[in-house]
Protein backbone atom coordinates (compact mmCIF):
# COMPACT_ATOMS: atom_id res chain seq x y z
CA UNK A 1 0.00 0.00 0.00
CA UNK A 2 1.20 3.45 -0.96
CA UNK A 3 1.70 5.81 1.95
CA UNK A 4 2.42 8.82 -0.21
CA UNK A 5 0.41 11.51 1.55
CA UNK A 6 0.59 13.71 -1.57
CA UNK A 7 -2.29 11.61 -2.86
CA UNK A 8 -4.56 12.35 0.11
CA UNK A 9 -7.31 14.41 -1.52
CA UNK A 10 -10.96 14.92 -2.37
CA UNK A 11 -11.91 14.83 -6.04
CA UNK A 12 -15.07 16.71 -6.98
CA UNK A 13 -16.35 15.74 -10.42
CA UNK A 14 -18.74 18.25 -11.99
CA UNK A 15 -20.75 16.30 -14.56
CA UNK A 16 -20.54 12.95 -12.76
CA UNK A 17 -23.42 11.37 -14.68
CA UNK A 18 -21.90 12.29 -18.06
CA UNK A 19 -20.05 10.33 -20.67
CA UNK A 20 -16.53 11.44 -19.77
CA UNK A 21 -16.93 10.66 -16.06
CA UNK A 22 -18.32 7.21 -16.79
CA UNK A 23 -16.07 6.15 -19.65
CA UNK A 24 -12.80 7.60 -18.44
CA UNK A 25 -12.69 9.06 -14.96
CA UNK A 26 -14.24 6.35 -12.77
CA UNK A 27 -12.25 3.52 -14.39
CA UNK A 28 -9.06 5.61 -14.06
CA UNK A 29 -9.63 6.28 -10.35
CA UNK A 30 -10.32 2.60 -9.77
CA UNK A 31 -7.22 1.58 -11.64
CA UNK A 32 -5.09 3.92 -9.49
CA UNK A 33 -6.67 2.45 -6.35
CA UNK A 34 -6.22 -1.12 -7.53
CA UNK A 35 -2.53 -0.48 -8.21
CA UNK A 36 -2.11 1.01 -4.74
CA UNK A 37 -1.34 4.49 -6.06
CA UNK A 38 -4.37 5.83 -4.19
CA UNK A 39 -4.76 4.58 -0.67
CA UNK A 40 -7.78 4.91 1.64
CA UNK A 41 -7.32 8.66 2.21
CA UNK A 42 -9.41 9.97 -0.64
CA UNK A 43 -13.00 10.77 -1.48
CA UNK A 44 -14.84 11.36 -4.72
CA UNK A 45 -17.88 13.60 -4.82
CA UNK A 46 -19.99 13.30 -7.95
CA UNK A 47 -21.92 16.43 -8.84
CA UNK A 48 -24.62 16.56 -11.52
CA UNK A 49 -28.18 17.65 -12.08
CA UNK A 50 -29.91 14.28 -11.86
CA UNK A 51 -31.43 13.14 -8.52
CA UNK A 52 -29.46 10.13 -7.32
CA UNK A 53 -28.63 8.71 -3.92
CA UNK A 54 -25.16 7.48 -2.99
CA UNK A 55 -26.11 3.89 -3.59
CA UNK A 56 -27.38 4.50 -7.12
CA UNK A 57 -24.27 6.59 -7.85
CA UNK A 58 -21.97 3.83 -6.60
CA UNK A 59 -23.83 1.34 -8.79
CA UNK A 60 -23.18 3.60 -11.79
CA UNK A 61 -19.50 3.77 -10.89
CA UNK A 62 -19.31 -0.04 -10.55
CA UNK A 63 -21.01 -0.48 -13.95
CA UNK A 64 -18.68 2.00 -15.62
CA UNK A 65 -15.65 0.12 -14.30
CA UNK A 66 -17.07 -3.21 -15.48
CA UNK A 67 -17.73 -1.74 -18.94
CA UNK A 68 -14.16 -0.49 -19.12
CA UNK A 69 -13.03 -4.12 -18.86
CA UNK A 70 -10.96 -3.46 -15.75
CA UNK A 71 -11.34 -6.51 -13.58
CA UNK A 72 -13.10 -5.85 -10.26
CA UNK A 73 -11.33 -7.29 -7.26
CA UNK A 74 -12.52 -7.99 -3.71
CA UNK A 75 -11.86 -4.50 -2.39
CA UNK A 76 -14.31 -2.86 -4.81
CA UNK A 77 -16.95 -2.25 -2.09
CA UNK A 78 -14.39 -0.46 0.09
CA UNK A 79 -13.38 1.56 -2.95
CA UNK A 80 -17.00 2.51 -3.70
CA UNK A 81 -17.57 3.63 -0.11
CA UNK A 82 -15.32 6.63 -0.93
CA UNK A 83 -17.88 7.85 -3.53
CA UNK A 84 -20.65 10.29 -2.66
CA UNK A 85 -23.15 12.13 -4.80
CA UNK A 86 -24.81 15.53 -4.66
CA UNK A 87 -27.60 16.59 -6.94
CA UNK A 88 -26.58 20.05 -7.92
CA UNK A 89 -27.33 22.97 -10.17
CA UNK A 90 -24.01 24.61 -10.84
CA UNK A 91 -25.69 27.98 -11.29
CA UNK A 92 -27.20 27.87 -7.77
CA UNK A 93 -24.96 29.44 -5.10
CA UNK A 94 -26.57 27.61 -2.20
CA UNK A 95 -25.49 24.23 -3.57
CA UNK A 96 -21.82 25.18 -3.20
CA UNK A 97 -22.23 25.66 0.52
CA UNK A 98 -23.79 22.18 0.80
CA UNK A 99 -20.85 20.83 -1.19
CA UNK A 100 -18.40 22.54 1.14
CA UNK A 101 -20.04 20.94 4.19
CA UNK A 102 -19.89 17.51 2.61
CA UNK A 103 -16.22 18.05 1.74
CA UNK A 104 -15.46 18.94 5.36
CA UNK A 105 -17.31 15.82 6.60
CA UNK A 106 -15.46 13.54 4.22
CA UNK A 107 -12.11 15.13 5.00
CA UNK A 108 -12.75 14.20 8.64
CA UNK A 109 -13.96 10.70 7.78
CA UNK A 110 -11.07 9.81 5.46
CA UNK A 111 -8.39 11.87 7.18
CA UNK A 112 -7.78 14.14 4.18
CA UNK A 113 -5.77 17.32 4.85
CA UNK A 114 -8.00 19.70 2.88
CA UNK A 115 -6.53 18.96 -0.58
CA UNK A 116 -9.26 19.52 -3.16
CA UNK A 117 -9.33 18.73 -6.85
CA UNK A 118 -12.18 20.07 -8.96
CA UNK A 119 -12.71 18.26 -12.26
CA UNK A 120 -14.84 20.05 -14.85
CA UNK A 121 -16.41 17.18 -16.78
CA UNK A 122 -19.27 19.22 -18.17
CA UNK A 123 -20.06 21.73 -20.89
CA UNK A 124 -17.52 24.58 -21.07
CA UNK A 125 -20.11 27.37 -20.75
CA UNK A 126 -20.29 26.49 -17.03
CA UNK A 127 -16.55 26.54 -16.28
CA UNK A 128 -16.38 30.25 -15.41
CA UNK A 129 -19.52 30.12 -13.22
CA UNK A 130 -18.30 27.07 -11.32
CA UNK A 131 -14.85 28.56 -10.72
CA UNK A 132 -16.20 31.84 -9.41
CA UNK A 133 -18.73 30.18 -7.05
CA UNK A 134 -16.08 27.78 -5.76
CA UNK A 135 -14.14 30.82 -4.67
CA UNK A 136 -16.97 33.11 -3.50
CA UNK A 137 -18.63 30.35 -1.46
CA UNK A 138 -15.37 29.33 0.18
CA UNK A 139 -15.13 25.85 -1.38
CA UNK A 140 -11.55 26.50 -2.42
CA UNK A 141 -9.88 26.51 0.96
CA UNK A 142 -6.53 27.34 2.42
CA UNK A 143 -6.01 24.12 4.39
CA UNK A 144 -4.42 22.20 1.55
CA UNK A 145 -4.00 22.56 -2.19
CA UNK A 146 -6.75 23.45 -4.69
CA UNK A 147 -6.51 22.25 -8.27
CA UNK A 148 -8.82 22.74 -11.20
CA UNK A 149 -8.81 20.24 -14.05
CA UNK A 150 -10.43 21.60 -17.12
CA UNK A 151 -11.45 19.80 -20.31
CA UNK A 152 -11.33 20.87 -23.91
CA UNK A 153 -12.67 22.83 -25.66
CA UNK A 154 -10.88 25.73 -23.99
CA UNK A 155 -12.83 28.47 -25.81
CA UNK A 156 -13.74 28.49 -29.50
CA UNK A 157 -11.29 31.21 -30.55
CA UNK A 158 -8.69 33.41 -28.90
CA UNK A 159 -11.09 36.04 -27.47
CA UNK A 160 -13.42 33.41 -25.93
CA UNK A 161 -10.45 31.44 -24.56
CA UNK A 162 -9.06 34.65 -23.09
CA UNK A 163 -12.40 35.39 -21.41
CA UNK A 164 -12.66 31.87 -20.02
CA UNK A 165 -9.12 32.10 -18.76
CA UNK A 166 -9.79 35.44 -17.06
CA UNK A 167 -12.89 33.94 -15.40
CA UNK A 168 -11.10 30.93 -13.98
CA UNK A 169 -8.04 32.98 -13.02
CA UNK A 170 -10.31 34.98 -10.66
CA UNK A 171 -10.48 31.85 -8.53
CA UNK A 172 -7.37 29.80 -9.40
CA UNK A 173 -3.72 30.69 -10.01
CA UNK A 174 -2.13 29.53 -13.27
CA UNK A 175 -0.19 26.84 -11.38
CA UNK A 176 -3.46 25.48 -9.92
CA UNK A 177 -5.04 25.05 -13.38
CA UNK A 178 -4.56 21.75 -15.20
CA UNK A 179 -5.81 22.04 -18.79
CA UNK A 180 -6.25 18.52 -20.10
CA UNK A 181 -5.07 17.53 -23.54
CA UNK A 182 -5.45 13.78 -23.26
CA UNK A 183 -2.99 13.23 -26.12
CA UNK A 184 -0.29 14.37 -23.70
CA UNK A 185 -1.17 11.39 -21.50
CA UNK A 186 -0.63 8.86 -24.29
CA UNK A 187 2.37 6.63 -23.78
CA UNK A 188 3.92 7.24 -27.19
CA UNK A 189 3.35 10.99 -27.13
CA UNK A 190 5.27 11.03 -23.86
CA UNK A 191 7.80 8.77 -25.53
CA UNK A 192 8.57 11.34 -28.27
CA UNK A 193 10.92 13.16 -25.90
CA UNK A 194 12.65 9.92 -24.88
CA UNK A 195 13.08 8.75 -28.48
CA UNK A 196 14.57 12.11 -29.38
CA UNK A 197 16.66 12.97 -26.37
CA UNK A 198 17.86 9.54 -25.20
CA UNK A 199 19.03 8.09 -28.50
CA UNK A 200 22.30 9.01 -30.12
CA UNK A 201 21.11 7.65 -33.45
CA UNK A 202 18.24 10.15 -33.75
CA UNK A 203 19.02 13.47 -32.11
CA UNK A 204 22.06 14.31 -34.30
CA UNK A 205 19.86 13.79 -37.36
CA UNK A 206 16.86 15.69 -35.99
CA UNK A 207 17.12 18.83 -38.11
CA UNK A 208 16.81 20.30 -41.59
CA UNK A 209 20.08 18.79 -42.79
CA UNK A 210 18.78 15.23 -42.53
CA UNK A 211 15.00 15.36 -42.34
CA UNK A 212 13.07 16.08 -45.50
CA UNK A 213 9.56 16.30 -44.03
CA UNK A 214 7.41 15.23 -41.10
CA UNK A 215 3.87 13.90 -41.41
CA UNK A 216 1.41 13.68 -38.55
CA UNK A 217 -1.86 11.87 -39.16
CA UNK A 218 -4.66 11.44 -36.67
CA UNK A 219 -7.51 9.66 -38.39
CA UNK A 220 -10.74 8.36 -36.97
CA UNK A 221 -13.03 5.82 -38.56
CA UNK A 222 -16.00 6.99 -36.48
CA UNK A 223 -18.27 9.81 -37.58
CA UNK A 224 -19.73 12.36 -35.19
CA UNK A 225 -21.91 9.72 -33.45
CA UNK A 226 -24.11 11.48 -30.88
CA UNK A 227 -21.93 14.62 -30.68
CA UNK A 228 -23.36 16.23 -33.85
CA UNK A 229 -24.63 19.32 -31.97
CA UNK A 230 -21.19 20.09 -30.51
CA UNK A 231 -19.18 19.06 -33.56
CA UNK A 232 -21.17 21.10 -36.07
CA UNK A 233 -20.22 24.23 -34.13
CA UNK A 234 -16.60 23.13 -33.66
CA UNK A 235 -15.20 21.28 -36.71
CA UNK A 236 -11.93 19.39 -37.05
CA UNK A 237 -9.69 22.45 -36.81
CA UNK A 238 -10.98 23.43 -33.36
CA UNK A 239 -11.56 19.89 -32.17
CA UNK A 240 -8.17 18.44 -33.13
CA UNK A 241 -5.68 20.89 -34.61
CA UNK A 242 -5.78 23.69 -32.03
CA UNK A 243 -4.88 21.27 -29.27
CA UNK A 244 -3.70 17.70 -30.03
CA UNK A 245 -2.02 18.26 -33.39
CA UNK A 246 -0.15 21.43 -32.40
CA UNK A 247 0.93 19.81 -29.13
CA UNK A 248 2.47 16.93 -31.10
CA UNK A 249 4.20 19.42 -33.41
CA UNK A 250 5.72 21.21 -30.45
CA UNK A 251 7.03 17.97 -28.89
CA UNK A 252 8.53 16.85 -32.18
CA UNK A 253 10.19 20.17 -32.93
CA UNK A 254 11.26 21.52 -29.54
CA UNK A 255 14.89 22.02 -28.58
CA UNK A 256 16.28 19.74 -25.87
CA UNK A 257 15.28 21.32 -22.55
CA UNK A 258 18.08 22.01 -20.07
CA UNK A 259 16.34 19.72 -17.59
CA UNK A 260 13.15 17.69 -17.39
CA UNK A 261 11.25 20.12 -15.18
CA UNK A 262 7.78 21.31 -16.16
CA UNK A 263 9.00 24.89 -16.68
CA UNK A 264 11.93 23.96 -18.92
CA UNK A 265 9.93 21.59 -21.10
CA UNK A 266 7.10 24.10 -21.41
CA UNK A 267 9.38 26.92 -22.29
CA UNK A 268 10.84 24.91 -25.20
CA UNK A 269 7.38 23.89 -26.42
CA UNK A 270 6.19 27.49 -26.29
CA UNK A 271 9.18 28.58 -28.39
CA UNK A 272 8.09 26.17 -31.13
CA UNK A 273 4.55 27.52 -31.12
CA UNK A 274 5.98 31.03 -31.40
CA UNK A 275 8.21 29.99 -34.29
CA UNK A 276 5.44 28.47 -36.44
CA UNK A 277 5.25 30.65 -39.50
CA UNK A 278 2.13 32.80 -39.40
CA UNK A 279 -0.05 33.10 -42.49
CA UNK A 280 -2.10 36.05 -43.61
CA UNK A 281 -5.78 35.34 -44.25
CA UNK A 282 -5.07 35.50 -48.00
CA UNK A 283 -2.31 32.89 -47.74
CA UNK A 284 -4.32 30.25 -45.86
CA UNK A 285 -5.49 28.38 -48.97
CA UNK A 286 -1.88 27.75 -50.00
CA UNK A 287 -1.21 25.91 -46.75
CA UNK A 288 -4.48 24.49 -45.40
CA UNK A 289 -7.26 22.43 -46.99
CA UNK A 290 -10.50 21.11 -45.55
CA UNK A 291 -12.92 18.31 -46.22
CA UNK A 292 -16.29 16.95 -45.22
CA UNK A 293 -17.27 13.29 -45.42
CA UNK A 294 -19.84 11.92 -47.79
CA UNK A 295 -21.56 8.57 -47.36
CA UNK A 296 -19.39 5.53 -47.90
CA UNK A 297 -18.39 2.20 -46.48
CA UNK A 298 -16.21 1.49 -43.44
CA UNK A 299 -15.24 -2.03 -42.34
CA UNK A 300 -17.93 -3.38 -44.71
CA UNK A 301 -20.72 -1.21 -43.30
CA UNK A 302 -22.53 1.57 -45.21
CA UNK A 303 -22.41 4.88 -43.35
CA UNK A 304 -24.24 8.18 -43.98
CA UNK A 305 -22.83 11.52 -45.12
CA UNK A 306 -21.95 14.09 -42.43
CA UNK A 307 -24.84 16.32 -43.53
CA UNK A 308 -27.28 13.47 -42.80
CA UNK A 309 -25.99 12.88 -39.26
CA UNK A 310 -28.16 13.54 -36.22
CA UNK A 311 -28.15 17.19 -35.02
CA UNK A 312 -26.07 18.33 -38.01
CA UNK A 313 -27.32 21.12 -40.30
CA UNK A 314 -28.19 19.47 -43.66
CA UNK A 315 -26.40 22.41 -45.40
CA UNK A 316 -23.47 22.36 -42.97
CA UNK A 317 -20.15 23.82 -44.07
CA UNK A 318 -18.31 22.41 -41.05
CA UNK A 319 -15.06 20.64 -41.88
CA UNK A 320 -14.67 17.04 -40.71
CA UNK A 321 -11.15 16.87 -42.16
CA UNK A 322 -8.20 19.25 -42.19
CA UNK A 323 -4.77 18.96 -43.73
CA UNK A 324 -2.10 21.58 -43.52
CA UNK A 325 1.52 22.39 -44.06
CA UNK A 326 3.40 24.13 -41.26
CA UNK A 327 6.83 25.69 -41.34
CA UNK A 328 8.87 26.39 -38.27
CA UNK A 329 11.02 29.44 -38.70
CA UNK A 330 14.07 28.61 -36.68
CA UNK A 331 17.60 27.44 -37.27
CA UNK A 332 16.80 23.75 -36.80
CA UNK A 333 13.68 23.51 -38.94
CA UNK A 334 13.75 26.17 -41.65
CA UNK A 335 12.87 24.47 -44.94
CA UNK A 336 11.33 21.30 -43.46
CA UNK A 337 7.58 21.07 -44.06
CA UNK A 338 5.50 19.54 -41.29
CA UNK A 339 2.30 18.15 -42.73
CA UNK A 340 -0.64 17.44 -40.50
CA UNK A 341 -3.96 15.80 -41.31
CA UNK A 342 -6.88 14.74 -39.20
CA UNK A 343 -10.41 13.74 -39.92
CA UNK A 344 -13.43 11.61 -39.22
CA UNK A 345 -14.74 8.62 -41.14
CA UNK A 346 -11.35 7.85 -42.60
CA UNK A 347 -10.09 4.40 -43.53
CA UNK A 348 -8.76 3.48 -40.11
CA UNK A 349 -8.49 4.80 -36.56
CA UNK A 350 -4.84 5.66 -36.25
CA UNK A 351 -2.46 8.32 -34.97
CA UNK A 352 1.03 8.21 -36.42
CA UNK A 353 4.02 10.42 -36.99
CA UNK A 354 6.30 9.71 -39.94
CA UNK A 355 9.72 11.31 -40.08
CA UNK A 356 11.07 11.08 -43.60
CA UNK A 357 14.85 11.42 -43.88
CA UNK A 358 16.67 12.97 -46.81
CA UNK A 359 18.39 10.86 -49.44
CA UNK A 360 22.09 10.16 -49.27
CA UNK A 361 24.01 12.53 -51.53
CA UNK A 362 25.47 9.71 -53.62
CA UNK A 363 23.58 6.49 -53.22
CA UNK A 364 25.36 3.73 -55.10
CA UNK A 365 22.16 1.74 -55.37
CA UNK A 366 20.18 4.54 -56.94
CA UNK A 367 18.85 3.54 -60.33
CA UNK A 368 15.82 5.68 -60.79
CA UNK A 369 13.31 7.56 -58.69
CA UNK A 370 11.35 4.29 -58.47
CA UNK A 371 13.87 2.25 -56.55
CA UNK A 372 14.79 4.86 -53.95
CA UNK A 373 13.36 4.18 -50.53
CA UNK A 374 13.77 7.01 -48.08
CA UNK A 375 14.52 6.06 -44.48
CA UNK A 376 11.49 6.54 -42.28
CA UNK A 377 10.99 6.66 -38.54
CA UNK A 378 7.36 5.96 -37.73
CA UNK A 379 6.01 6.69 -34.27
CA UNK A 380 2.80 4.75 -33.72
CA UNK A 381 0.71 6.59 -31.16
CA UNK A 382 -2.61 4.76 -31.27
CA UNK A 383 -4.12 2.21 -31.32
CA UNK A 384 -0.82 0.37 -31.52
CA UNK A 385 2.05 1.95 -29.70
CA UNK A 386 5.61 1.65 -30.83
CA UNK A 387 8.12 2.69 -33.42
CA UNK A 388 9.14 1.34 -36.79
CA UNK A 389 12.20 2.16 -38.79
CA UNK A 390 12.21 1.66 -42.54
CA UNK A 391 15.70 0.99 -43.95
CA UNK A 392 17.01 -0.24 -47.27
CA UNK A 393 18.09 -3.85 -47.46
CA UNK A 394 19.35 -6.07 -50.23
CA UNK A 395 16.79 -7.81 -52.39
CA UNK A 396 17.59 -11.52 -52.14
CA UNK A 397 19.22 -13.05 -55.19
CA UNK A 398 19.01 -9.89 -57.28
CA UNK A 399 22.38 -8.17 -57.40
CA UNK A 400 22.31 -4.41 -56.91
CA UNK A 401 18.57 -4.28 -56.05
CA UNK A 402 17.29 -2.93 -52.75
CA UNK A 403 14.07 -3.36 -50.88
CA UNK A 404 12.55 -1.55 -47.86
CA UNK A 405 13.03 -3.44 -44.60
CA UNK A 406 10.85 -2.52 -41.64
CA UNK A 407 12.06 -2.95 -38.06
CA UNK A 408 9.24 -2.84 -35.54
CA UNK A 409 9.14 -2.21 -31.83
CA UNK A 410 5.72 -2.60 -30.25
CA UNK A 411 5.34 -0.91 -26.89
CA UNK A 412 1.89 -2.15 -25.92
CA UNK A 413 2.60 -5.70 -27.08
CA UNK A 414 4.97 -6.16 -24.15
CA UNK A 415 2.56 -5.82 -21.28
CA UNK A 416 -0.72 -4.15 -22.07
CA UNK A 417 -2.07 -4.57 -18.54
CA UNK A 418 0.65 -2.33 -17.16
CA UNK A 419 0.07 0.37 -19.68
CA UNK A 420 -2.28 2.89 -18.10
CA UNK A 421 -4.85 4.86 -20.08
CA UNK A 422 -4.05 8.52 -20.80
CA UNK A 423 -6.68 9.75 -18.34
CA UNK A 424 -5.31 7.56 -15.57
CA UNK A 425 -1.81 8.96 -16.06
CA UNK A 426 -2.98 12.55 -16.23
CA UNK A 427 -5.25 12.25 -13.22
CA UNK A 428 -2.38 10.82 -11.22
CA UNK A 429 -0.02 13.58 -12.39
CA UNK A 430 -2.55 16.21 -11.33
CA UNK A 431 -2.99 14.59 -7.91
CA UNK A 432 0.79 14.68 -7.47
CA UNK A 433 0.94 18.28 -8.68
CA UNK A 434 2.94 17.56 -11.84
CA UNK A 435 1.62 19.79 -14.63
CA UNK A 436 4.21 18.89 -17.30
CA UNK A 437 1.69 17.07 -19.44
CA UNK A 438 -1.00 19.74 -19.23
CA UNK A 439 -1.24 22.83 -21.41
CA UNK A 440 -0.16 26.19 -20.10
CA UNK A 441 -2.22 29.25 -20.97
CA UNK A 442 0.57 30.57 -23.24
CA UNK A 443 0.36 27.41 -25.34
CA UNK A 444 -3.43 27.69 -25.57
CA UNK A 445 -3.23 31.35 -26.61
CA UNK A 446 -0.55 30.80 -29.27
CA UNK A 447 -2.44 27.84 -30.73
CA UNK A 448 -5.67 29.83 -30.99
CA UNK A 449 -3.84 32.72 -32.62
CA UNK A 450 -2.62 30.37 -35.34
CA UNK A 451 -5.94 28.61 -35.83
CA UNK A 452 -8.04 31.80 -35.78
CA UNK A 453 -6.40 33.03 -39.00
CA UNK A 454 -7.44 29.82 -40.75
CA UNK A 455 -11.01 30.23 -39.56
CA UNK A 456 -11.12 33.83 -40.70
CA UNK A 457 -10.06 32.75 -44.17
CA UNK A 458 -12.58 29.91 -44.23
CA UNK A 459 -15.44 32.07 -43.03
CA UNK A 460 -14.77 34.56 -45.83
CA UNK A 461 -14.49 31.82 -48.36
CA UNK A 462 -17.29 29.27 -48.03
CA UNK A 463 -16.77 25.92 -49.72
CA UNK A 464 -18.79 24.84 -52.73
CA UNK A 465 -17.60 21.25 -53.07
CA UNK A 466 -18.63 19.71 -49.72
CA UNK A 467 -18.92 16.78 -49.20
CA UNK A 468 -15.57 16.16 -50.89
CA UNK A 469 -14.39 12.77 -49.59
CA UNK A 470 -16.11 9.45 -49.28
CA UNK A 471 -16.33 7.83 -45.87
CA UNK A 472 -13.72 5.11 -45.60
CA UNK A 473 -11.05 7.00 -47.57
CA UNK A 474 -8.04 9.03 -46.43
CA UNK A 475 -9.67 12.40 -47.14
CA UNK A 476 -10.10 14.67 -50.16
CA UNK A 477 -7.72 14.81 -53.10
CA UNK A 478 -6.68 18.37 -52.18
CA UNK A 479 -4.86 16.88 -49.18
CA UNK A 480 -2.74 14.74 -51.50
CA UNK A 481 -2.13 17.72 -53.78
CA UNK A 482 -0.72 19.67 -50.83
CA UNK A 483 2.20 17.23 -50.60
CA UNK A 484 2.46 16.51 -54.31
CA UNK A 485 3.23 20.20 -54.92
CA UNK A 486 6.38 19.69 -52.82
CA UNK A 487 7.24 16.35 -54.45
CA UNK A 488 6.04 14.23 -51.49
CA UNK A 489 3.14 11.90 -50.72
CA UNK A 490 1.45 10.77 -47.54
CA UNK A 491 2.94 7.57 -46.20
CA UNK A 492 0.39 4.81 -45.55
CA UNK A 493 -1.04 4.46 -42.06
CA UNK A 494 -1.83 0.75 -42.06
CA UNK A 495 0.55 -1.36 -40.03
CA UNK A 496 1.13 -4.05 -42.56
CA UNK A 497 1.72 -1.41 -45.20
CA UNK A 498 4.12 -1.82 -48.03
CA UNK A 499 6.44 1.17 -47.80
CA UNK A 500 7.63 0.88 -51.39
CA UNK A 501 7.12 4.03 -53.37
P1 LIG B 1 -22.20 14.91 -21.02
O1 LIG B 1 -23.22 15.76 -21.73
O2 LIG B 1 -22.26 13.45 -21.21
O3 LIG B 1 -22.31 15.20 -19.45
C1 LIG B 1 -22.59 16.47 -18.92
C2 LIG B 1 -22.72 16.39 -17.41
O4 LIG B 1 -22.95 17.72 -16.93
C3 LIG B 1 -23.89 15.54 -16.89
O5 LIG B 1 -23.45 14.86 -15.74
C4 LIG B 1 -24.94 16.60 -16.50
O6 LIG B 1 -25.79 16.20 -15.43
C5 LIG B 1 -24.05 17.72 -16.01
N1 LIG B 1 -24.72 19.03 -16.04
C6 LIG B 1 -25.18 19.71 -17.12
N2 LIG B 1 -25.73 20.87 -16.74
C7 LIG B 1 -25.61 20.95 -15.37
C8 LIG B 1 -25.96 21.93 -14.38
N3 LIG B 1 -26.57 23.09 -14.68
N4 LIG B 1 -25.63 21.65 -13.10
C9 LIG B 1 -25.02 20.49 -12.76
N5 LIG B 1 -24.66 19.55 -13.65
C10 LIG B 1 -24.97 19.78 -14.93
O7 LIG B 1 -20.80 15.52 -21.42
P2 LIG B 1 -19.38 14.74 -21.54
O8 LIG B 1 -19.32 14.07 -22.88
O9 LIG B 1 -19.15 13.92 -20.34
O10 LIG B 1 -18.34 15.94 -21.64
C11 LIG B 1 -17.99 16.75 -20.50
C12 LIG B 1 -16.87 17.72 -20.88
O11 LIG B 1 -15.72 17.01 -21.28
C13 LIG B 1 -17.20 18.64 -22.05
O12 LIG B 1 -16.51 19.86 -21.86
C14 LIG B 1 -16.60 17.91 -23.23
O13 LIG B 1 -16.31 18.79 -24.30
C15 LIG B 1 -15.36 17.36 -22.60
N6 LIG B 1 -14.82 16.18 -23.26
C16 LIG B 1 -15.51 15.02 -23.28
C17 LIG B 1 -14.95 13.90 -23.87
C18 LIG B 1 -15.68 12.57 -23.91
O14 LIG B 1 -15.05 11.59 -24.28
N7 LIG B 1 -16.94 12.51 -23.51
C19 LIG B 1 -13.67 13.97 -24.43
C20 LIG B 1 -12.97 15.17 -24.38
C21 LIG B 1 -13.56 16.27 -23.77
From TrEMBL:
Residue ranges occupied by any Glucose-6-phosphate dehydrogenase NAD-binding domain in the UniProt entry? 12-191
Q: In which pathway does it act?
A: Carbohydrate degradation; pentose phosphate pathway; D-ribulose 5-phosphate from D-glucose 6-phosphate (oxidative stage): step 1/3
**Which GO molecular function terms does the record list?**
glucose-6-phosphate dehydrogenase activity; NADP binding
Alphabetical keyword list:
Carbohydrate metabolism, Glucose metabolism, NADP, Oxidoreductase
Residue ranges of every copy of the Glucose-6-phosphate dehydrogenase C-terminal domain listed in the record: 194-491
EC numbers: 1.1.1.49
- Binding-site positions, NADP(+): 49, 89-90, 152
Catalytic residues per the record? 244
Q: Which InterPro entries match?
A: G6P_DH, G6P_DH_C, G6P_DH_NAD-bd, NAD(P)-bd_dom_sf
Enzymatic reactions: D-glucose 6-phosphate + NADP(+) = 6-phospho-D-glucono-1,5-lactone + NADPH + H(+)
- Return the Pfam families for the record: G6PD_C, G6PD_N
Q: Give the residues the record marks as binding substrate.
A: 182, 186, 220, 239, 344, 349
- Name the job this protein performs: Catalyzes the oxidation of glucose 6-phosphate to 6-phosphogluconolactone.
Q: Which NCBIfam families match?
A: zwf
**Family (UniProt):** Belongs to the glucose-6-phosphate dehydrogenase family.
User: Per its record, how is this protein called by name?
Assistant: Glucose-6-phosphate 1-dehydrogenase
- Recorded source organism is Salirhabdus euzebyi
What does UniProt list as this organism's lineage?
Bacteria, Bacillati, Bacillota, Bacilli, Bacillales
Q: Tell me the gene name.
A: zwf
